[in-house]
Hints:
This protein is an alpha/beta fold. The protein has 14 helices and five strands.
Amino acid sequence: MKRLRELETHATAACADVGLIGRDLVASVVPHIVSGLLLRRGSDIVHIQGDVGSGKTRLAHACHRAMVRTFGEPRTVIDAIEQKAHDNGTGLLFDHVTELESIHQHRVITALDAFERHTAETPSNAALCLLTSSVPEHGEPCKITGRAAAHIVIPPLHERSNDAASIAQHIAMETAQHIATQDFAGLTRQAQQDVVAAVTQAKVTNVRTLRTAIREAMFQREATGAASDVLDSMALMPTLERHFAFNETSRHVHELHALRGPHSPTEHMQSVATLHDIPAEALEELCHGVQGIINGMDEPSRSYKNIVERTNRMSKIALWLLSGAQTQAQFRRFFGSTGVTMPPKSVAHQIYHEVFPEQRAP
């Protein structure tokens, strides 16, 4: 177990070395780097599959880096590096192998033969990675990728939406540095939530698409001379709508879906609603209202104490508005005509001044 933890540490550090962003992505690929590469000491070919722009090449570099961290500098893999391969000093990667012409595929196969013969005799301390954007669903298996004994698939970005916010933040900070923006603090929390929702709704598969959108928003922000030190939701929304058809209505739908979770508003929400003897639909709307209150608060003020205080105050204000009262007396009579049903005058007085704070005496 100690050895396994050491290998996982090397693989995780290698991902950080090459700038592989996203905790979900790193968590998903590290076990495969360990089992498909490090435990085998690079003796088997690794096939990396992912959409165009998903980060296959960066992941291949992470594989190479993991080998260096674990075993030191690699020995010579093969004497001659084929024309269609890239050598980064720590191993080989063949990109777009399924798209090569037959003559080049034959040359790659020859190189793979040499690699396998070499590693069968002596561990190479190197990684040989085959990169493809897709795997044919029908027909004969690819003669090249079929040689790989280890496989790593990069999940589509929309399936690891938790990574979308951190990736967008990184792209925004990188772009701010490129255009020399001073004291830029990144995306607001709401803007990050909108990115996650947009990526999920549009089923964005790769980082490149998200990068294009975030960079466009950043340059647009710079062109309009924005005074804010952040990229907020209002500034980002037009770009999200152009690239992903995501708007305010989409956000509302996404928030309701997030409240429901993987189930309909039955099951968990229904059980809680039944426990408190209220309709599930009312509880769902209440949750959405509380989420709206939180979204309207500045990020530094979103503490538990502040959220509860504001939620309590807003619930009293909502009750006043529902009563249709204009005066404290009318508010009290909304609940009945006896002292048992009516709120005390002191409570009505307090709520009145929470609804109309400008009426408070100086």
